[in-house]
Amino acid sequence: MFFAKFGNRASDPIWPVDILVSQSTEAQIIMGHLLADALSGFPVPFYPLCLQKAHENAALVDFDFDILQDKIFEGIQNILGDESHVLDAARLQDHDPAQARYS
After folding, report:
1. Within this chain, do residues 47 and 76 fall inside the same structural domain, yes or no?
2. By C-alpha distance, which of 71, 76, 100 is closest to 88?
3. CA distance 5 to 46
4. Domain that includes residue 67, residue range
C-alpha cells in the first residue's frame, strides 16, 4: 500500500494506492503514470482520471442497482409476511423530504 498526494496544496487529499506485490518493482513507474493522469484529472482535480473511471465502473448504479434493490426488498417482504405493506409504504415515501422546501 502506497499513499499519494497528487496536488501541491495543503488541502489536497491523500489517496491510498494498492500495488500488487508482484508489481512492487514497478511502483515508481505506476505512481508516475497516476501522477500524469492526475494532473489532467478533470472533473476531480488531482484525482487520476483512470481511478475515477474505475470507480464509476465498479459502482453499482442504474439498472443493476434497481435489480439488486428489488431483490433485497423482495427478501425483506418475505420475512415481514403479512406486515410487508409497511415496507411498501416506506418505499413510496419521498426519499429527500428537504426537496419540498423548493417546490
Report:
1. no
2. 76
3. 8
4. 62-94
